[in-house]
Fold this sequence. Notes:
Two copies of one chain form a homodimer.
Chain A (H helix, E strand, L loop, with lengths): L3 H16 L17 E5 L9 H15 L5 E4 L3 H13 L3 E4 L6 H9 L3 E3 L8 H12 L2 E2 L6 H7 L1 H9 L5 E5 L4 H13 L4 E7 L4 H8 L23 H9 L5 E5 L1 H13 L11 H7 L8 E5 L6 H8 L2
Parallel strand pairs in A: 1-9, 2-3, 2-5, 3-4, 6-7, 6-9, 7-8
Helix pairs in contact in A: 1-2, 1-6, 1-8, 2-3, 2-6, 3-4, 6-8, 7-8, 8-10, 11-12
Amino acid sequence: MTSFLEEHAAEVAAASNRIRPHIRRTQSLTTDLDRDLRLKPECFQVTGSFKTRGAFNAVLSLMERERPRGVIAVSSGNHAQAVALAARSVGVPALILIPEDANPTKVAATRALGAEVMQEGITFANREARLREVMAERGFTLVHPFDDWAVIHGHGTAAVELLEDAPDLDVIATPVGGGGLLSGTAIAARSRRPSVKVVGVEPEQADDAYRTWRSGSIQTLPSSPTTLADGVRATAIGKRNFEVMVTNGLIDEIVTVTEEEIAEGLRVAWTRLRLALEPTGALPLAAYIAGKLPAGTKGLILSGGNANFETVARLLTP
Amino acid sequence: MTSFLEEHAAEVAAASNRIRPHIRRTQSLTTDLDRDLRLKPECFQVTGSFKTRGAFNAVLSLMERERPRGVIAVSSGNHAQAVALAARSVGVPALILIPEDANPTKVAATRALGAEVMQEGITFANREARLREVMAERGFTLVHPFDDWAVIHGHGTAAVELLEDAPDLDVIATPVGGGGLLSGTAIAARSRRPSVKVVGVEPEQADDAYRTWRSGSIQTLPSSPTTLADGVRATAIGKRNFEVMVTNGLIDEIVTVTEEEIAEGLRVAWTRLRLALEPTGALPLAAYIAGKLPAGTKGLILSGGNANFETVARLLTP
């Protein structure tokens, strides 16, 4: 009988092979800051974030079964571009639902990757309901941003590469929003190196994952938080992510960081590490600088670099 | 009989071995911008610039002959930190002459690396004269920022690594100021791949290397230019650099870029490549974006990342 961890670890290994021709193997970096630190700069990933790992694994897995009529996603950020690119690469239509008040630059980037974008009448509140309606109308297949096994397995490939580069890490930290990256990382890391501590980093303002992990049941935020880290604004983690993180106990800890700590992480990234990260991508660094990570050698998965430059400039200039 | 190129290429190979324990092998990057582009991000090098390559090769070469009393350098920028670190690594004193009006942050960074900094009464105009006096007083050995064979050979190691990562490049472009990086690159690249075109990129405001290459004799700027690219403010290339670049014809071209083109290169680096470069480090990118580089696959040596964030913020926000 194979265990939960073995079964999912095999899927992560399959995902690595499946997505290899389509994504970039980002090289881990060492820095002058601390010799015990390894950075996994997913800001250099295709489309500028790790989201292409999960999106490609999901779309390519669908194709192996039966060619979908099209794929659909709800996102105003990195997942939108990732799904658009993955769909275009295999030649299936992509429809992305983006709330009306989203950043026009991100909408344009998603369209530039060949996706159809639907915005009219879509709000953060009604988007799930609209999604069900549109899926029924079109017969398109959903690619969920985190509560989807193929997405989780795809996201786990970043930790596989990080441990290839640095097999002796004591700690691996990732941002946590819906839990896709953190649960994929936990599967990949704990199966390859059982002693490694896997830590999720979350804004204090959006501490649902922290409270979920502490309480042992899924906790939901009353509304989408306004944190600087706009990539982790999901109001609750997914069921599959909960199964990995809590039911199977594959993560060690979730730590929270304040907005000032996120800003400091971003400052260090841009001025000392020379990495132009987005605030969400700097979450693990923020926790490291604040001294909130466990002892030992640390690998930080810096999830993306699609920053709003004006926000960064405001934070970094006196 | 070994040729000029063979002899110096052997010295570059020796430099690679000599400095390996002390520097970082920066991994070249591919990008979504253009599949025919390879970036050599020396912003991730120890101290944030390629300058440590030449400084370590110079200081370690001195140690192989006879332990110097100390080393001395004149610099307000990346060379200062590189020499300070190299000297500290081998345990010899370093004295750095920095003009009085230099950026206090860079002075502090140099002191933090254990160097003695001399600023009193030192100006851009009198610094060479002061240098001779202090060298005579102390008996310290000069590490010149570019007109020094050991420095040139050390700087050539970046191109060795770039061609290991991407052996089929048609073009390699570097910034050019005093010519240290460009002449080292020319030796390394042309000896390993005779067909590769080696191109220097210089601000239009500081076009002495361009005019030197066109005229066949060393041209000098009347004063230090005020270009954004403050790492290439040398008023003339060195004699040894001239010997490589012009006398032996090892470079193919020098192209100049306007201040607006440098700013655009910086914008693309920070917002699309997610590399927090300094303006000088973005010179090859500026030339690429302006369509000024020869056809084919291109390797860009992005020399450093010690940017003044306020300058960058001013350039990048509307």
